[in-house]
Automatic annotation (TrEMBL):
Name the record gives this protein: Opioid growth factor receptor-like
Gene name linked to the record: LOC114855070
GO cellular component, one term: membrane
GO molecular function terms attached to this record: opioid growth factor receptor activity
Domain Opioid growth factor receptor (OGFr) conserved: 168-368
Pfam families from the UniProt entry: OGFr_N
PANTHER family in the record: OPIOID GROWTH FACTOR RECEPTOR, OPIOID GROWTH FACTOR RECEPTOR OGFR ZETA-TYPE OPIOID RECEPTOR
Annotated region (Disordered), positions in chain: 50-105
Top-level taxon of origin: Eukaryota
Biased composition (Acidic residues): 87-101
Family (UniProt): Belongs to the opioid growth factor receptor family.
InterPro entries associated with the record: OGF_rcpt, OGFr
Length: 397
């Protein structure tokens, strides 16, 4: 019998072709779906239950999933989903009273999947009787679609059975992070990926490592990767080796994006020396926004929720204030901000964004009544500044 051997180079070529075809198929499916939704919007088609087909875009990675979980997002978060003890139901209360945060029934930017501005029990009561405000804004429809995905994450994937596919005792991701098993299909160990530090070509072109470095309770592009289980999350967060390796993975990707972790205790980040080159890559390869969304979700799940807000604040500053990353601005506002588990931090980030966003009439990421309050405060502060300046002016006789 004649045996045929395939060279490693040919194997790599086959893998790249397979990954390309998979991406192409996902792209075609996504845009066909969008076209169908847009046609449905034009003709006013309605889905079962009376919901208008508004052409909303699914979550950033939804077109790659076997199914989208949109049911029961408002249920109480499973404590096993976040060993850090932070969940949206237990977040710090906002300084404003519930009356101040009472979303009016006609608020044009009310989103049923975003409870950032409401107490959780109030939000659940409203969800039973209200849907997102009927709008014609494409920008707001995108936000509503993203908010559904991000709320599902913040609540610990309450309808997660479709993502399981394996027993809760499966520890594949933990074993990979402990260096006991390789990734698939690349067959590389955790330290092999960490050796890719500053290997920007590999980090950009290979699409099967990110699901192993930053595992979630939802599937992604790599069908060979495993989703996290509740039990696995708890064991992962108990392991010093696993969490230390996750920190190294985070530093690896920060460097790839031109960012440096300057405080491991607080998670504060800053531009790295090579930031211009890497920002150019981020602007031209916007699929990295999917990766960053995954990274933020993973940080919140596997013991680093305090790292979320500093990274999101960095991206808000670079997109809205310094305007260095215009191509990922909508991803920052739709996804990055709403990956932050702590509600008060999320509110502060949205206010920071609103202060720097122009034109403010196009800002859709919080209800109008909140924006109105912020605008009043801005006007009041400006008047106080002008009054102070006038009092400090010396007039010559």
């Amino acid at each position: 019998m004649v045996k045929f051997s395939v060279s490693p180079a040919l194997q790599r070529l086959c893998r790249k072709c397979r990954d390309f075809l998979r991406c192409l198929w996902g792209f075609i499916c996504r845009w066909c779906s969008r076209l169908t939704q847009c046609v449905g919007t034009a003709f006013g088609w309605r889905r079962a239950g009376g919901e208008t087909n508004d052409g909303a875009i699914r979550g950033e990675d939804d077109f790659l999933r076997p199914g989208a979980s949109g049911e029961n997002e408002g249920r109480e978060r499973d404590p096993a989903a976040d060993s850090s003890g932070i969940s949206e139901d237990d977040e710090s209360k906002d300084d404003l009273s519930d009356e101040d945060h009472d979303v009016g029934p006609l608020d044009e930017l009310y989103c049923e999947y975003d409870s950032t501005w409401e107490e959780e029990e109030v939000h659940e009561k409203r969800k039973k009787t209200r849907c997102s405000a009927p709008v014609t804004s494409y920008k707001f429809r995108r936000f509503v679609s993203a908010a559904k995905d991000m709320q599902n994450y913040r609540h610990g994937y309450p309808a997660n059975t479709q993502y399981a596919g394996h027993s809760d005792g499966d520890m594949t991701n933990l074993e990979f992070y402990l260096g006991r098993r390789p990734s698939l299909p690349d067959e590389m160990y955790i330290h092999d990926f960490h050796n890719w530090f500053e290997n920007y070509d590999a980090l950009e072109s290979v699409h099967t490592y990110i699901q192993w470095l930053f595992p979630l309770q939802e599937p992604g592009m790599n069908s060979s990767a495993r989703t996290l289980t509740k039990a696995e999350i708890q064991e992962f967060c108990k392991s010093n080796t696993a969490t230390a390796n996750l920190l190294e993975s985070y530093k690896l990707m920060l460097n790839f994006y031109g960012i440096r972790l300057c405080d491991e205790n607080t998670g504060e980040v800053e531009r790295a020396a090579h930031w211009k080159e890497r920002f150019d890559n981020l602007n031209s390869h916007t699929h990295n926004s999917l990766r960053i969304t995954r990274i933020l979700k993973c940080l919140g799940t596997l013991g680093y929720p305090h790292y979320q807000s500093p990274l999101v604040h960095f991206f808000l500053k670079e997109t809205l204030e310094n305007r260095n990353l215009p191509r990922i601005r909508d991803s920052v506002l739709n996804y990055f901000v709403f990956a932050v588990l702590d509600k008060k931090q999320r509110q502060s980030l949205i206010e920071f964004a609103f202060d720097r966003y122009e034109p403010k009439d196009d800002f859709v990421w919080c209800p109008k009544y909140i924006q109105t309050k912020w605008l009043r405060d801005l006007m009041s502060n400006r008047k106080q500044v002008h009054s102070t300046d006038d009092l400090g002016v010396d007039h010559d006789d």
